[in-house]
Structure formats: structure tokens, C-alpha cells
Amino acid sequence: MSEGPVVTATDLRKSYGDTVALDGVSLSVDAGEVFGLIGPNGAGKTTLVRALTGTTAVEGEARTFGVRPADADRSRVGLLPQEFSPPERLTPRELLAYYGGLYDESRDAESVLADVGLSDDADTWYEELSGGQKRRACVGVALVNDPDLLFLDEPTTGIDPAGRRDLWELLEGLAAGGTTVFLTSHSMDEVEALADRVGLLRDGRLVAVGTPADLIGEHGGPARLVVGTADPAATDAGAEAIRVAGFRVERGEGELVVEGVTPADLGRAVAALDDAGVAFESLTWTEPTLEDVYLRLTGEQFEGAFTPGASVVDGEEAGTEPGEGEVEDVVAGSEVDG
Ligand SMILES: Nc1ncnc2c1ncn2[C@@H]1O[C@H](COP(=O)(O)OP(=O)(O)OP(=O)(O)O)[C@@H](O)[C@H]1O
């Protein structure tokens, strides 16, 4: 395993006409590190991957293994582009033989097929594979030269949950063995699970870089208690009781969202509801995730998600009708019947 950064970028810039795709991106990725790149559609992720793999010309300086990407030893780099359409009338086994043949040395096709979970479909034409099986085959192609540096642009799109987890395990194993992985994904759980460090790209700029834990600590916002309330009267009474107990509370339809509740606060919050005789149907405590970081830093909202800090606090702020906000499904947390 080599020492020091395997990938470096200094002030990368790229425009397509008036569209600025990269607006001064600098980063470095060390050997054996999994770097996760996230950001909204059009943020510049694919352009950055292309810059780092030498498939598009950019301003600034990009280096892989210390040389310009176009000059890097191709046998050491694997690339799964976002759009990759191998020949339709080849089977996964043939595809691996075909792409493996481009290198002086390549991995045994059977072991790659096993790695990506395609051993049973190894002799089906590519065009007859399901979407997820196709993507597995494409991941296999990126692995066939046993690369030291692997670029994966949205590798698990279309792959079922079990298959995604298998691929995560595979990537973790590769990284543990010293492979450097540069991963872009729209799946926050994927990036949180895999990445040692995460970079968030927005409008061509890297607006945050850090470990998932650091980014969540810095930008994820507070832990929350969501109280499912039985009826509007209970929602009103619950909001008041929680507020009086000193918490910051927001109201949604049939629920209250109490922000900044630590595990040590839970008892006091529940006691406030009980003391006020407020009937509640559920209690869910959630800690912030990388998804919260993403939402806060991009200003995006998932449909149905409420806007942190933008609705009723102390019942005073205007502009939000009860029922307007709705909290997304619980991602991590515990439910307690009330
Ligand atoms: N070949 C091209 N010609 C013109 N504009 C382009 C081209 N490629 C990308 N762009 C523009 O550059 C910007 C960045 O695109 P890019 O594909 O890098 O974003 P992305 O973050 O990968 O998006 P997505 O999440 O949708 O894959 C977008 O505004 C896009 O429209």
C-alpha cells in the first residue's frame, strides 16, 4: 500500500457554456480510504469523477498516483461510470473475459462473478438481465483489473437491498485490503455506512468535507423526539406542556416534534406530557443522520419532510398551519407506546 494521497485535486474548474459544473474543487484521498461524494443532481459529481479519471479536460490540477489522470497506469484504476452500457449480447462471464482481456493481468472471472453476486446468472445475455443484475455486472467490470483505485459513480442504483448490502461488504473488504474507493451516491445510508470521509458538492463547490460523524455533529442538527398525538386538542395541550417544560417544539399533523432532546431529557419530556394528561400514541426518538446534513446544507427537502426551525415555535411564528409539516419515516430510533 502506497503512502500519502492517491488522489489530489487542486482548484478544479469546468464550465459547459454558461453552466459552471466545477467551481474550484480541491481535495485529497489517501490510500485505502473510502471517499463518499454526495450532492444534488447537477452539483458536478460526475464531472468531478470525469476530471479525476482523465475523461474530461478541466482547469486546475488533478493527480492520481502522483501523475495526471490521463497518464496514470490504467491497470491500477477501475471506473464504473454513471452511464455504462456494455454490449447487450454478451453474458456477464463473457463481459468479464472481454474487459479483462484489455489488461495484461486480470482477475479470474468466476471470483468476480461471485463477488458481485452473479454466479447464477453468468450465462444470461446482458440485455436479459434485470436492472440490478446489469448494475452488478457493470460493477464487476470495474473490478476485473483488481484496481488499487476504484471510482464508482452511483454503483448500487437499481440493486435490491440485500444486494446493496452485499456490495457494501465487498467494498469494505476491498478498502480494508488497501483499495482506495471514490464513491458517488444519492443514498445517504450507503455513504454513511461506507465512507471514511464525505464531501458534499453543491453548485460545483465542495461545501463540507469530513467524517460522517463530524459532519453529523456539525451540521446534522439536534436529536428529536416525535410525539404522535391522538387529536388536535392533545396536540395543542402537548405543545404547551412541552414548551412549558423548556423544550423547543414544532407541530405537525397528529404529531409534535421536540428538538434537542437528549436521552437524559426523555423522562422529563414524557413526564411533562403525563402531568398535563396529554394522550399520545407513540414516541419516537431519532438522532440526526447524514441525510439531515444533506438536507440542511443543500437546502433541499424530501417530500413530506418538515422544515427544521421554520414552523411553529412557542406558537408565535406565523406562516405554518398545523398539519403542514410532516416528519419523514423514522430512520433510526426507538418507539415507545404511550
Ligand atoms: N456534456 C455536458 N454538456 C453540457 N452541460 C453539462 C455536460 N455535462 C454536465 N453538464 C452540466 O454540468 C452540471 C454538472 O453536471 P454533473 O453531471 O457533473 O452533475 P451530477 O452532480 O453528477 O448530477 P447527477 O446527480 O444528476 O448525476 C449540470 O448543470 C449539467 O447540466
Automatic annotation (TrEMBL):
Record SUPFAM superfamilies: P-loop containing nucleoside triphosphate hydrolases (SSF52540)
CDD domains: ABC_DR_subfamily_A
Membership in a protein family: Belongs to the ABC transporter superfamily.
Entry-linked InterPro entries: AAA+_ATPase, ABC_transporter-like_ATP-bd, ABC_transporter-like_CS, ABC_transporter_ATP-binding, P-loop_NTPase
This protein's record includes keyword rRNA processing: no
Superkingdom, natural source: Archaea
Gene3D superfamilies attached to this UniProt entry: P-loop containing nucleotide triphosphate hydrolases (3.40.50.300)
PANTHER family named in the record: ABC TRANSPORTER ATP-BINDING PROTEIN (PTHR42711), ABC TRANSPORTER ATP-BINDING PROTEIN NATA (PTHR42711:SF5)
Disordered, as annotated region: 313-338
Chain intervals with Acidic residues compositional bias: 314-329
Single annotated GO MF: ATP binding
Positions of the ABC transporter domain: 7-228
Name by which UniProt lists this protein: ABC transporter ATP-binding protein
Family matches, as Pfam families: ABC_tran
Source organism per UniProt: Halorarum halophilum
UniProt KW keywords: ATP-binding, Nucleotide-binding, Transport
